[in-house]
Amino acid sequence: MSIEFELEAIINGETVALIARQLSSIDFKLNDKSTLNGYEIKSTFTQPRALKSDGNPDLEVFCFYLANAKDKDKFIVGNKTVLL
User: Fold this and answer.
1) Across-strand partners of 9?
2) Which of 22, 26, 72, 80 is spaced 20 to 30 A from 1 at the CA atom?
3) Around 72, how many Cα atoms within 13 Å sit in the side-chain half-sphere?
4) What is the reported pTM?
5) Pairing mode, if any, of strands 61-66 and 80-83?
């Protein structure tokens, strides 16, 4: 099953983080074979403390971590990305 996200930010660091907004309300789990646009990601994710304009938590925003930092150049903020 594939799930679409819109990339909102790329955070450089020891591990490159991709902040993305889920475009559908499908539940998902990551495993050791999960990818974003075919690029390997770690099997864990977090949800940033993002807020909606009304002050409630924005539970559609996720932070994924690239397995290989060199893959960051394959992602562009604002583009759609697919989780497989």
Assistant:
1) 19
2) 72
3) 15
4) 0.93
5) unpaired
Q: What is the CA radius of gyration of the chain?
A: 12
Structure tokens at 39: 């690029």
pLDDT under 70: residue ranges of the chain: none
pLDDT tens string 2-14? 999 999 999 999 8
Residue 1: predicted pLDDT: 77
DSSP 44-66: EEE----B-TTSSB-TTEEEEEE
Q: How many CB atoms are closer than 10 A to CB 3?
A: 17
Rounded to 5 degrees, φ, ψ at 70 are -65, -15
